[in-house]
Amino acid sequence: MVSPQLHLLTNDALAFSVMEKLGVTHLATNDDDFDSVSGVKVFKPART
Asked: Which of 12, 14, 25, 36 could join 8 in a cystine, given CB atoms 3.0 to 4.6 angstroms apart?
């Protein structure tokens, strides 16, 4: 269950829930909202 304290938008919360269910711990995204999520290693692709 996604905690409301994460302050994620609906789509981000859904993505995080699926990640938790599948055991995914790494994410490539430019979305800064995931920077504060514990247990997720965020990789930022180069912005062009």
From this structure: 12
**Considering only CA atoms, which of 28, 29, 26, 30 is closest in space to residue 40?**
26
Question: Can you name the residues that pair with 43 across neighbouring β-strands?
Answer: 28
- Domains of the chain, residue spans: 4-43
What does the alpha-carbon distance between residue 27 and residue 41 come to, in Å, rounded to a whole number? 6
> Which pLDDT tens digit goes with each residue over 14-47?
999 999 999 999 999 998 999 989 999 999 998 6
What is the pTM (predicted TM-score) of this model?
Answer: 0.79
Nearest to 16 by CA among 26, 30, 48: 26
The pLDDT value recorded for residue 7 is 85
